[in-house]
Amino acid sequence: MKKKPRLGHDPFKDEGPLSFIRDSRAGKPSKPDNIGNTIIPARAGKTKGRPKGTGAQDRDAWTRATFIVRRTRLEKIKALAYWERQNLKQVLDKALESYLKGRAIKPIPGE
């Protein structure tokens, strides 16, 4: 009784080992389809532009704001954030919290 090969058959048994290579110079050179228009699957559902938020649970308590700060103070805040292993948002929040702590502040009229 003849045993069957365990890993399949030899694809090159009837042909040479490089017989699958064809001469591409024989005809018109083919152009790959969809060059430059390929959609990258990882980014297919994402939109361009600025991120809409961090996804934090308390995102309603935060808002974006832009401030002009002295360079020397910004460098100090960045260094402090680095050494405290926090981000700038956390360091600025603590600084503002300590500045406003214990102050009685009247609301702005008309708001």
Q: What's the quick description here?
A:
The protein is an all-alpha fold.
Structural topology:
Blueprint: H1 71-84, H2 88-100
Helix pairs in contact: 1-2
Description:
There is one protein chain. By secondary structure, the protein is mainly α. The protein has a domain at 68-101. It has two helices and no strands. The chain has helices at 71-84, 88-100. Helix 1 crosses helix 2.
What key attributes describe this structure?
single chain, 111 residues, mainly alpha, 2 helices, 24% helix, 0% strand
Shape: elongated
Percent of sequence in beta strands: under 5%
Mean pLDDT: 78
**Count of helical segments?**
2
Helix amount, in percent? 10-25%
How far apart the termini lie comes to: 95 Å
